[in-house]
Amino acid sequence: MKRIAWIVLGLLAQMTTAQAASNVDSFSPTDIGRRFEHLSVHPNGKELIFVEYTGGKEADDYRADIFEYNIDTKKYRKLVLPEGYLYSSPSFSPKGNFILLTRIPQFQNYDEKKKEYPIIEQQKSYSQAQILMLDANGMNLRILPIPLGRMFAPIMSPDEDKILYTVFISPPREGHATDWSKSEFVEFDLKTSANTLFAGPFGFGSPQAIQYINEDKILISSFGFWDVDIFKYHEKYNDSRIMELARNSKERPSPEFIDVTNGVHDASIDKNNNYYLLGSQYTKTGNNIFKISPDGEKTPYPIPPSLLKNQLHSVSVTRDGKKIFFLYHADGTAIGDWKTAIGQFDIESSQWSTVAIPNMESSTPLVVNK
Fold it and tell me: Which residue from 41, 57, 61 is spatially nearest to 49, judged by alpha carbons?
């Protein structure tokens, strides 16, 4: 029966693909040449927050600045934060009351002869990461009382009283600024200041917390675990990186959605508990973003051919489930040096389009105050 059900769903997918065919070829990639990362969507579905990187780690003007952009009003603001740091991984809280972000000290002692920052200086900066929190209006900036460490990608619980983040356990490998091969998820309680493992320890490989499913379960992405044969592991789970992790669990989670498409690496959930999944775009089924309803109904949204070569990532659905925002990057650019742009998919009209972010010079400064 299950096989028959999947065949029927496959036929429905073909019908949906045909219905949307008139809309998928109108996308025109643009703005590639800048580098945007860490995209987060406000619960109102209209405001985006992200990092724009300028310069490079091999340049003495390397910067990471945080911007907000309103899709409707076109209001574009730069968060003016204390100098001397590189800021990253901003995210809106589930109710839209707060913004979370991380920062590390700016790299030091630029080597003019080698045209790079020494690895030891980069390692030192990453080991002194902090998590910050501010009100959505840019006021009340505070540094959370969490010990300095190699921390990344904070997100907030649905009731906005806990913050979950990734901690890198493995020491940096020789010649590398950091090492993500063994990591854990830690939760900070804003009411009690308790700082505890969410579950495990498990030793996740290159993990990232995506969002809370509810107060006691989170959606995460991970390449696996530090002590597994990664090739056999990926073969077993169809390259899926998406997992669900329950609070205080002592059993390692397994990848989900392995039957949806090959290599599921991005996931997002709307308020009705529909999942939106993106897999490897080098496979036939990877030409879609898939919506999976709570009852298992599978709806594919075909990715325009003109966009496929620009590799989507960082897929994020609006809370109302009406739009999907994403990043896409230039085909063939090196990992870690992607030139990226922001795009959106309007689910109701089946229209794909770019989000034309103005030049940073035209942004309005939002001075963040304590």
Answer: 41
Which residues fall within 8 angstroms of residue 180, CB to CB, at 6 or more apart?
168, 170, 205, 206, 207
Mean of all residue pLDDT scores within the chain: 85
Closest CA to 355 of 42, 23, 44, 48: 48
Q: Is-above-0.90 flag for pTM?
A: no
Contact yes or no for 155/199 (Cβ under 8 A): no
Token pair of 163, please? Answer: 């913050």
Average pLDDT over residues 322-345: 78
CA distance 321 to 45: 9
pLDDT tens digit string along 246-283? 999 999 999 999 888 888 999 999 999 999 999 876 66
Tokens matching residue 361: 């010079």
Spacing of C-alpha 43 from chain mean position: 16
At residue 54, the pLDDT reads 82
For residues 211-250, b (16+ Cβ closer than 10 Å) or e, as one string? Answer: bbbeeeebbbbbbbbbeeeeeebbeebbbbbbbebeeeee
